[in-house]
Design goal:
mainly alpha, two-stranded antiparallel sheet, Myb/SANT-like domain-containing protein, globular
């Protein structure tokens, strides 16, 4: 058989299966930043982006990195990163000093990891590979994670593909089927102590209550990160400076806004002649201009 035909057949087969390898953190960074810009400018369609926004995101990825993906593959990536982010919030909200902000990693015991992975398949990906750009994920997914959480239930029967970040490869989930209870129930937790005369709660009910408590803590973290001046307010001031979307300072500023509310508050209070120096200084501190 002609080797060229074999290669072509393999390529076609890969395309049919819809597999794509997102190699390199910079591609993910560009993807998240462009999604944020599109959501800010054009809004969402449900919990995802609008069709014309996916076209724009695809064009930016191709122009910036020579990376070509279709709308379905980008939606799958969007959902995958969202589910990793929700799992990250769940782990971060657990009591105890488990989170290391310097390395953006968690220090659970093997037994604890096993239990957590059984409850949420996306937790397993965070065990070996930290969540990329949590500040960007926070801005992009806050507000929809509570109403569109996927992957909290039993393991999906959908096929898996491989996602690679730099030298490490972690499992990716291509098409997600949500099995989570409505997150509104996270705000309906009965906090009253159960009378001793009542029958002891079943193990299943106890697990549901624990899940709701963890979800409530995760949602509180997301709300806290999203306080202060909004990204829309900060971006309005940024656009008035006339730097342009291709200016590195413009992109670094967007990254800073997503970091925390304190930076957004500082930005709003800056004088016009202070803006550029502030962006350079904070970007260096956060490693956004590396």
């Amino acid at each position: 058989m002609d080797p060229s035909n074999t290669t072509q057949n393999q390529s076609n087969e890969t395309q049919k299966k819809g597999k794509v390898y997102w190699r390199g953190e910079l591609i993910t960074k560009t993807f998240l930043e462009t999604c944020i810009e599109e959501v800010t400018a054009n809004g969402r369609l449900g919990s995802s982006l609008k069709p014309h926004s996916w076209v724009k995101v695809g064009d930016i990825l191709k122009k910036t990195h020579g990376f070509e993906v279709d709308a379905r593959q980008m939606r799958n990536r969007y959902d995958y990163l969202r589910n990793r982010y929700v799992a990250w919030c769940q782990l971060k909200s657990k009591t105890g000093n488990h989170y290391n902000p310097v390395t953006n990693s968690f220090n659970f015991t093997e037994e604890e990891w096993d239990q957590l992975c059984k409850r949420n398949k996306y937790v397993e990906t965070l065990k070996s590979t930290p969540l990329c750009y949590p500040e960007l994920c926070t801005h992009l997914y806050d507000g929809i994670a509570a109403t569109g959480v996927s992957g909290w239930g039993p393991s999906s029967k959908r096929r898996r593909i491989v996602d690679a970040n730099d030298e490490k490869e972690i499992p990716d989930i291509e098409e997600i089927q949500s099995n989570a209870p409505n997150a509104q129930s996270a705000f309906n937790i009965d906090t009253e102590e159960t009378p001793k005369k009542r029958n002891k709660a079943s193990p299943k009910l106890a697990k549901i209550t624990e899940f709701e408590n963890e979800m409530t803590s995760a949602l509180k973290l997301m709300v806290q990160a999203n306080s202060g001046p909004s990204l829309k307010e900060c971006k309005e001031k940024l656009n008035n400076l006339g730097w342009g979307a291709t200016n590195p300072l413009h992109k670094m500023a967007l990254g800073i806004f997503c970091e925390s509310a304190k930076y957004r508050e500082q930005w709003i209070l800056l004088e016009e002649n202070e803006n550029a120096d502030w962006v350079k200084m904070v970007s260096t501190k956060l490693g956004l201009n590396a």
